[in-house]
Write a structure and sequence with these properties.
418 residues, five-stranded parallel sheet, binds flavin-adenine dinucleotide, 14 helices, globular
C-alpha cells in the first residue's frame, strides 16, 4: 500500500485522510494537541467557546452533503436552524438582514432616499464595477452604502473599499436585482424563506464535535509541528517516517521553508511572502437574551463587526440561563481595547474569554489563483499536494474545503496528478 503523509488535522486534512484511508496507508501530523484547526472549540466556565468564529454547517454541493452525513446521525446529533441574522444600526435599532430587503424598516427619510437611489440606478448603464466600493454603490445605491455597507465592510477588511478588488470576494457577493429588492421589501421577505437559509449545528460540543468525529479511525500524531520535510531517493521523510506522497494542509507561508532542501520553490518565495491575510480576535461573552443567530454591527462607535450568538445554536452551549456569543474583531486587539469596545456595544456583552488567531482570512489578489495553481503544478510532479484554506489561500468554508478534498482524492486515485 502506498503511504501518504497529511500535514494538518483541520477540516481539510481530516477530510482527505478519511477519503483516502481505505486505499492508502495515511498518517496525519498535527501541531496542536487535538483535531479541528480553525473549528476547534473549548469549554470555558461551562460555556462552549468557538475560539474562531462560530462554525455552522451547510452545503450547496449534494456530493459533499452525502459524504458528510455518512459520519453523523443527522436527526439525533444535529439541529437544523433557520438563519436569523439582524443588523444593529445603533444600540436600540435592529433592522432585518440583508438590509436591502428591509429598507421598509429604516427611518422614513432613509427609506425614501433608498427608493430614489433605486430609481437612479435603474436608469444607469455603465461599465462593470472595478472595486468593492463601486460594486456596492452601483448595486445598492449611496444611501445603503453610507449607512451600512461602507462602515460594516471597513471594519471587516480594515481598508478603503476602493482598494478591495472584486477578485477577493468572487462568489461571495449578493447580486439581487432592483426588481428583487423591491419585491422583497413589498413582501417583507424573511431570510428564512431564502435559499441556504438554514444551517446544521451539533447538539453538543459545537464544531469540535465535527472535528472529533472526522478524526475517528485515523492515524494522527498530535503535538507534531512539522518544520522540515526532505526527499530521499523518491520518498519523502516526515518525522523520520517514509512516505510516497505528502498532502500539505498547513499554511503556504511555511511551505517553502519546510521543503527548502528538496523542492525548488525559489521563484515562489517572494510572491508567497507578499500574500496578505487578516487575523481575528474572538471574544466569548455573556450577552442579553435575543432571538438572533448573527448580529451585524456597522456602528463606527466600536470596532467589532459581528456578534455570533452561538448560545442560540444549542442550549448546551450556555452554562445556565445566560446566553453566550462570540464577538469578532478583525486583527489583534488588546484586553483593554476589548473592555472599552464591549462597554459601547449593544446586548451588554460581558467578557468571559478571548483569543487572537493570526491566520483567519486569506486575501485573494488578482494574481493569487494563478500563483497557487503554478505552485501546485510544480510540486505535484514530486508527489506533493496543497489542500486547504491557507495552503491554497482560498476563502473556503468547511464544505468547500471538503469538496476540494474530494476533488484531490479523485485525482490521486485516478493518478491524474497535474
Ligand atoms: C471567523 C471564521 C468563521 C467561519 N465560519 C464558518 C462557518 O460558519 N461555516 C463554515 O463552513 N466555515 C466557516 N469558516 C471557514 C472554516 O473555518 C474553514 O473552511 C476550515 O476550518 C478550513 O480548514 P483547513 O483544514 O483548510 O484549515 P485549518 O483549520 O487552518 O487547519 C490547518 C491545520 O494544520 C495544522 N498545521 C499547520 N501547519 C502545521 C505544521 N507545520 N505541522 C503540523 N500541523 C500543522 C494547524 O494546526 C491546523 O490544525 C470560518 C472561518 C473563519 C475564519
Amino acid at each position: 500500500m502506498e503511504k501518504i503523509a497529511v500535514i494538518g488535522a483541520g477540516v481539510s486534512g481530516l477530510s482527505i485522510a478519511q477519503l483516502l484511508k481505505d486505499k492508502y496507508s495515511v498518517k496525519l501530523f498535527e501541531k496542536a494537541s487535538r483535531p479541528g484547526g480553525l473549528i476547534k472549540c473549548e469549554i470555558v466556565d461551562g460555556n462552549l467557546y468557538h475560539t474562531v468564529g462560530g462554525h455552522v454547517f451547510n452545503s450547496k454541493y449534494p456530493a459533499v452533503l452525502d459524504w458528510f452525513w455518512q459520519f453523523f446521525d443527522r436527526e439525533n446529533e444535529f439541529s437544523k436552524t433557520p438563519r436569523n441574522a439582524s443588523i444593529a444600526l445603533d444600540n436600540s435599532r435592529m433592522v432585518g438582514y440583508p438590509i436591502e430587503n428591509h429598507a421598509y424598516m429604516l427611518e422614513e427619510k432613509t427609506t425614501k432616499a433608498f427608493i430614489q437611489d433605486l430609481l437612479t440606478l435603474s436608469k444607469q448603464t455603465g461599465s462593470a464595477p472595478d472595486n468593492f466600493e463601486e460594486f456596492l454603490r452601483t448595486r445598492f445605491g449611496n444611501t445603503l452604502y453610507d449607512l451600512y455597507f461602507q462602515p460594516y465592510n471597513e471594519k471587516v477588511w480594515r481598508r478603503n473599499l476602493k482598494q478591495v478588488p472584486l477578485s477577493w470576494l468572487e462568489g461571495k457577493l449578493p447580486m439581487p436585482t432592483i426588481e428583487e429588492m423591491i419585491y422583497n421589501n413589498f413582501n417583507h421577505a424573511k431570510e428564512e424563506n431564502m435559499v441556504h437559509s438554514s444551517f446544521y449545528y451539533p447538539k453538543q460540543n459545537g464544531s469540535q464535535f465535527i472535528a472529533n468525529r472526522l478524526a475517528e479511525n485515523l492515524d494522527i500524531a498530535y503535538d507534531q509541528d512539522i518544520t522540515s520535510i526532505v526527499k530521499k531517493d523518491i520518498k519523502w521523510i516526515v518525522n523520520g517516517e517514509t512516505f510516497d506522497k505528502v498532502i500539505f494542509c498547513g499554511n503556504i507561508k511555511d511551505f517553502p521553508n519546510i521543503f527548502k532542501n528538496s523542492l525548488n520553490t525559489a521563484s515562489f518565495v517572494k510572491p508567497i511572502e507578499a500574500l496578505e491575510s487578516h487575523g481575528t480576535t474572538s471574544v466569548l461573552c455573556e450577552i442579553d437574551t435575543n432571538p438572533y443567530s448573527w448580529i451585524y454591527l456597522p456602528n463606527r462607535a466600536y470596532s467589532s463587526h459581528r456578534i455570533i450568538c452561538t448560545g442560540n445554536f444549542a442550549m448546551s452551549n450556555n452554562n445556565g440561563t445566560k446566553l453566550t456569543g462570540t464577538i469578532e474583531f478583525t486583527d489583534y486587539i488588546s484586553r483593554d481595547e476589548i473592555t472599552t469596545n464591549l462597554a459601547k456595544m449593544p446586548f451588554t456583552p460581558k467578557h468571559i474569554a478571548h483569543q487572537y488567531t493570526e491566520y483567519t482570512y486569506p486575501i485573494q489578489e488578482k494574481t493569487t489563483k494563478d500563483l497557487i495553481h503554478e505552485l501546485k503544478q510544480a510540486v505535484a510532479k514530486e508527489q506533493v499536494f496543497l489542500l486547504g484554506r491557507f495552503a491554497e489561500w482560498e476563502y473556503y468554508n468547511m464544505d468547500a474545503a471538503m469538496k476540494a478534498a474530494m476533488d484531490l482524492a479523485t485525482r490521486i486515485e485516478k493518478n491524474k496528478l497535474r
